[in-house]
Amino acid sequence: MAATLSLPIIDLSSPHRLSTADSIRQACVEYGFFYLVNHGVDTQCLRKVFNQSAHFFSLPLQQKMDLARKEYRGYTPLFAETLHPTSLSKGDPKESYYIGPVEDPSIAYLNQWPSEELLPNWKPTMESLFWKLLAAGKNLLSLIALSLNLDEDYFEKIGALNKPAAFLRLLHYPGELVSGEQICGASPHSDYGMITLLMTDGVPGLQICKDKFREPQVWEDVPHVEGALIVNIGDLMERWTNCLYRSTLHRVMSTGKQRYSVAFFFDPPSDCMVECFESCCSESSPPRFPPIRSGDYLNERFRLTYGSERELKCSIST
Which candidate, 247, 244, 235, 241, places its Cα nearest to that of 296? Predict the structure, then answer.
């Protein structure tokens, strides 16, 4: 039985930005996870999104497969992904739907949408959520910059917010249990990019392992907090901060109940160079990682997840 974790709660609307930044720093150093409240995504919007998500995943498989993932957008069926690259399982028992950037017409056309006849108002509902999360993510990143003793527009200055590779992912875990087995709906993994903003329907299952190098691993439950987003740090942010901020291992365990969640992966554009921030290294603590293009790092991680090379169709200038 996993212990229940009490994560810090960060108020995105607080006028006390420096003290909020200090709280973010403490959360990212200690946990790599925190709750975010007053983020601008209203309850009515979330309710609509989860209703529309449930409607889509309840469709017959063939109708969902008509929108099968292309260019990293669309539907992925059960067992299509293995988030733990050394896993011997046949894949994770979850299905998902990816929606890529909507703000840039040159790539927004790559998104796939169910027809209005099939699912009325599905597209505008998801686009509305995307815009709200994009705004919340940009605001949060300015606070993360302050938390690292950088200018609050630092991520803009280095090009991380210039047509970012932001992806919305709807997730459905059927939740079946097999007697005597522990089943991971999402196998243990860290997120690959900059930050992730997560919404859940309240069904438990999310667990984190604060020390990914400890054996045996210790897993703790992350409880649902009504109205809060769950934020976690990704691998690229860990590299930027020289491992000061944790890209924490996490998983979703099946509980016997269906579970719906929505993840917003806020990543830099593919041509953004990720190299240690000056505020996070010194003579006694030199950079642990060489500089790398965001797209090169992410593509290698996606290759391991899906078993073949996937190039993100985002803003790339080489």
Answer: 235
Contact between residue 198 and residue 250 where contact means Cβ atoms under 8 Å apart: no
Tokens of 84: 């733990």
Sign of CA dihedral 158, 239, 3, 186: positive
pLDDT, position 185:
72
- For residue 162, CA distances in Å to 102, 269, 270, 317 come to 14, 7, 10, 11
- Strands 165-173, 273-274: pairing kind: unpaired
Q: How far is CA 271 from the centre of its chain?
A: 20
Judge if pTM exceeds 0.85. Answer: yes
| 57, 151, 169, 235, 257 from 99: Cα distances, Å | 15, 31, 6, 21, 25
Burial 285-314 (b: 16+ CB within 10 A, else e): eebebeebbbbebbbebbeebeeeebebbb
CB atoms within 10 A of CB 21: 21
On whether the CB atoms of residues 211 and 274 are closer than 8 A, the answer is no
Name the strand (E) or helix (H) holding 96: strand 95-99
In the sheet that holds 184-189, the strands lie side by side as 3-4, 220-221, 206-209, 249-253, 184-189
Q: How many CA atoms lie within 13 Å of 283's alpha carbon, on the beta-carbon side?
A: 0
Q: In degrees to the nearest 10, what's the CA dihedral of 50, 55, 60, 66?
A: -80
Q: Which of 166, 165, 210 is nearest to 188 (CA)?
A: 210
Spatial CA neighbour of 275 closest among 147, 152, 158, 138:
158
In this predicted model, what pLDDT tens digit does every residue of 265-309 receive, in sequence order? Answer: 999 999 999 999 999 999 999 999 999 999 999 988 877 766 543
Helices (H) and strands (E) in the chain — how many of each?
Answer: 8, 15
